[in-house]
Amino acid sequence: MERLLNVIMTIGSRRRIDRAKLFSVIPDYASAVSEQAAERMFERDKAAILELGLPLSTERDVIDENTVYYRIDTATSGAVLDLSTEEYTVLLAASRAWDAAAAGGAARRVRSKLLSLGHDADPDLLRRTPRGAIESLPVLSPLLDAVVAGRSVRFTYRGTHGAPAERRVEPWVVGVHDGHWYVYGWDRDRSAPRLFRASRIESFPAEGSAAQQARPEDTELSDVLGRMLDSDDRAAATLRAAPFKALSLRDRAGASLEAEQLTLPSLPRPAARRLLLADVRWVELLEPAAWREELEQVLETIAGLHEGEADLTELERAADRPVPRIRLTPQSGDHLSRMISAASYVMSRGEADLAELAEALDISEKQLVTDLEVLFVCGDMGAGWEDLIEAEWEHGTVRVRNAEPLRRALTLSAVEITALLAGLAALEPVAGETEKIVASSREKLLAGMHGTAEGQAPVPTRAEIAEAISTDEMAARTADRAEAVLAAVHSALHAPLHTGDGTDASRLTIRYSSADRPGTSVRRIRPLRIETDGARSYLVADCELAGAQRVFRLDRIVELPAEGTEMSRADGDAGAVLAGRVDGEVWLRLGPAGHWIAESFGAASLRDGEDDTTYARLDSPLLAPLVDAVLESAGAAQVLAPHALRDTIVTVARDAVARHTR
Question: Average pLDDT of 339-368?
C-alpha cells in the first residue's frame, strides 16, 4: 500500500515522469529480483490506480517511442459531480444505508470517495434523512462486479433443500425485494435461470469466465418472485377486515382505512393464501368459498401442530450447523481510497477535527491515526525526504500538507455507482419532501459517470445500470396516506421547538395502528429521526402518552387527527394482545418453505435435521411478528419451545378458524 501511494505521489507531483526514472526512484521496483518482476508489479499498480478513479495517462515520446511517460491527467480530474449541498447530503446518506464493515468492497470505498469531492453536508437535512441499513453482505460487491462486467461467478449455496453445494452462475440481476438481496441469473450446471437469496451464499463468490448466455430484456426481480407463487387458480378474493388493520391488504385493494369489506385484485391462489395468513388475525375471507375452506383447514393444521407438549427428540439429535466464514479482509484499494479521501478532505478545509473525520469515514480514531502515520512516510520518491507528505494530528486536529496529488476527487466505478443507487432506493420510500433531491441526485450520479480514464472499464449506461440492480419493492409507495404522513413528519423534524406565536410545530398528533393489539391509539409525539431497516422505516419520537421515547413504524401511522384530539390508548375489544418480546429462547422446526423465518428473525443458531428440516433458535424475538410469520408459513414452521408461545399460536389460530366456520 505504501508503494502504491508513493507511485501516485511521484507521478502526480510532476507534469510527467518517464518509465525508467519511475522504476529507479520507487524502492520496490528498483530492488525487484528481475526487470520482469518489476514490470509485473507496476502493471498491478497501474490497474489499482485506475480502479481508484485517478486519471492515469500513458504517452510515448514523439522522438523515441521506446520512452514511455506517465502522468495523472489534471485536465480531467476536477469535480466528478456537480452537486448541490442537498444532493451531496442525500448521496452521503445513501452511502450510509450500507453497513460498510459487513458489506466490504464497493460499500467501503464509496463512502470515502464521496468525502473526496470536497463538499459540506447540510447537517439539518442529514438529521432528517433516514439512518439505517439495507441488508449488507460481503458477497454483494463481487456479484455486482460480475453483473457489470458480464462474467460468471462460483460460490457455495445452501438452498431450501439439502446440503450446501457449489453453483456456477452468470448473474443477470442483483436486487432487493422486501429488504433482502437476491441474485437472478443463468445456472450453468442446471442450464436454466435460477433465483438465489444472497444471504444463503456461504462462500465469497469467485470470478469465473465471461458470461455466455444473453441476458433477457426487461428482467424484473418482482416478476421472477411473483412467478414462484403463480397458479392457474386465480380469483379476486373478497374479505372482511377490522378497521385500520390489514394495511397491506387494504393498499392492494385500494380500500379506505375504515372499510369493513374489501376485494383484492386477481391473484394466484398460493400468493393470496400467503397474504391472507400473514394478516389472518384481522381478516375473514368471504369468497371464493373453496379458498375459505382451504384457509380454515390450514389454520386447523397449524393449531394441531402446537397443541400439547412438543417432541424435542429430533431437536436434541440434530447437528449444529457451522457458521459460514466469508472473508471480510479489506482490499488494499479500499484502504488507499480511504487515505486519499482523508487527505483530500483535510486539505480542502485546511484542517479537520480528528473525531469528526473518523466518524465521517466510519472508522475508529485509532484507525485514522494509523492511516495518517502511513501518509507521513510517503511522498514523491524522486525528490528526496523533503517532499514527503506532512501529516499532523496533535491535540485532536488533523492537518495534511505537501500532498497536492491527493487533492483531487476520486471517480466512482460502475459497481460503486450501483451501490449508491441501492442506497438511494432505500431512502426513497421515506424521502417525503426530499423526493426531488433524491431524483436529481440519481440523475446526476448517472449522467456524470460516462467519462472514464484510459484503461478503466467503461461505466454502463443508465439503462444497463437499471437492469443491473432491481429495487422495486424498496422504492414502492403503498398508499396516498404515506405522502401526507411523511410530509408532516419531515415538517416536524425541520421545525424549531418553539415559534413566535407560542405554538410547537415540532409536535404531531397521530393515530397509530399497532401490530400487537386490536384497535388504534391516538398519541401526541415529537419526531426525533427516521430510521430504516430493510424494507421497513421507523420514526423515533418522544411520546406524551407513554412519557418516554417510542419507535413507530411509519406505515402504521394511519391518520393525522386534528389538533386537540384527545389522546387514547388502543380501544379494540376483540383479539389477542401480542405485545412485547418473547422472554428467552424460542426453538422452531422449519421445513423448506419456512426457512425464510430463520433469516428474517436473525436466528442465533441453526441445526440440521432429517428430511431437509432446519431447527432455529431465536433469542427474545418480537411476539406479534413471530406469530404472524408462523401463521404465514402455512404449517412449514412449528414452535417447539417455549410452551406458552405454542399456546398463544393455538389460541390465535383457533380464533381465526372460528371466524371462518360461522
Answer: 86
